[in-house]
Amino acid sequence: MKVLFLAWRDLAHPNAGGSEVVVDRLARELQARGHEVALICGGPVEPRAYNVVDAGGTFSQYLRSPWLARRFKDHDVVVDVVNGVGFSTPLWWQGPRVCLFHHVHAGQWKAHFPGPVASAGWYFERNLLPRLYRSTEFLTISRSTESELIGLGVSADLIHLLSLGLDDHLLVPPLPKSESPLFLVIGRLQPNKGTGRVLDAWEAVQPQTGGTLAIVGGGPEREELEARGLQGVEWLGRVPDDRKRELLGAAWLLIHGAYREGWGLVIVEAASQGTPAVAFDAPGVRDAVVNGETGLLESDVRAVASSWVALCEDHERRGAMGRAARTRALQFTWGRAAEALVLAAERAIELTPPRRRSSRSR
After folding, report:
1. 60-116 per-position pLDDT tens digit
2. Do 262 and 164 form a contact (C-beta atoms < 8 A)?
3. Inter-residue contact 98 to 79 (CB < 8 Å)
4. Burial of 240 (0-12, 13-18, 19+ CB in 10 A)
């Protein structure tokens, strides 16, 4: 099978995040299984094992991608990766299509874009996307997003679930826990990730537990958050994979502040190293945490702080949660994720009229 991905960014982009990781891992896994893969995305890009084409800037790529995709007209299926706004492939790609949809952005538009752009983005996501992609197969990464898509008007019959995987370096026995309390936050420092409310909780937690809150990641909020000058916080920025694994293994708890996710991948990464999570109950996050078993979900800052302190002090319960979290996490592999994509692609091919499939090669 020949698969063409259309995505917003390559991993080389300085603001690359979870969506870019997912596309890269799926592409590599498909290649390993003998499929041919190409990616068209906004720059900057870097050479990879699969073909990557730079489609231009943040917004210009949406105009250039249809033209660039003409060189891949012999590909069997296009995977339209929606980050709020898709590539409108139903308007110009005549063959089979799969829409890879991570999560509904809803109110997050206002946190990232000025008023008119935010309003236009939310209008597209809420009103135009379900109509435009009404005959497209959807892949989504959590039950939460599946429910939200159905709420937007996408037919449940078109939605397939793709569970994300873990990288190989996390499929090894966990490293020993830190002797002193170590808590971990991993994520881009931007409003939707909720690091500010994690720090609000830390102000109440730190006098009771002591220890260190290590924050991994960079982003536009770092200067403002770091300026709060809270005791016991270490700002580590972006770290290499081996250092990240050390931190995931040594941490007593992962603290997750996001307001919504497609799927809390970092929660499952921490779980693979025997580290349970305390998180705000939010779409996508509640799919990654089995509440009361692999971590705790709470509704507000006060409740998060209370559960944080309680698990810090209860070594036996925290250890049991960590073991349960690891057992569950090891079920998630990129191989299974690639299989889900292939099944959705095969269904899209099956349901596309032969006349439309053949017209791409003319």
Report:
1. 999 999 999 999 999 999 999 998 788 999 999 999 999 999 887 665 666 666 677
2. no
3. yes
4. exposed
Domains parsed from the chain with CATH numbers: 2-165+334-359 (3.40.50.2000), 168-329 (3.40.50.2000)
Q: Is 218 exposed, middle or buried (0-12, 13-18, 19+ CB in 10 A)?
A: middle
CB 3 within 8 A of CB 15: no
- The residue with tokens 């995505």 is 7
**Beta-strand pair 182-186/212-216:** parallel
The beta strands (E) that lie in 239-309 are given as: 253-256, 277-280, 295-298
Those residues whose C-beta lies under 8 Å from the C-beta of residue 315, and which sit 6 or more positions away, are none
Task: Give the CA angle between residues 94, 95, 96 to the nearest 5°.
Answer: 135
User: Could you tell me if residue 308 is left (phi over 0), alpha (psi between -120 and 50 degrees) or otherwise beta?
Assistant: alpha
Quick check: 183 and 199 in contact, CB under 8 A?
Answer: no
Dist. CA 162–CA 139, nearest whole Å: 6
Which residues make Cβ contacts (< 8 Å) with residue 314, sequence separation at least 6?
Answer: none
Contact predicate 50/33, CB 8 Å: no
Over the stretch 35-52, which tens digit does the pLDDT of each residue have? 999 999 999 999 999 999
- Rounded CA-CA distance 345/151 in Å is 24
Residues in Cβ contact with 302 at an 8 Å cutoff, skipping those fewer than 6 apart:
201, 204
- Length of the chain in residues, anyone? 362
If you search the block for the tokens 């917004």, which residue do you land on? 59
The residue with tokens 């708890």 is 253
DSSP letter (8 states) at residue 273? T
Residue 85 DSSP one-character state = B
pTM, two decimal places: 0.86
Residue matched to tokens 């063409």: 4
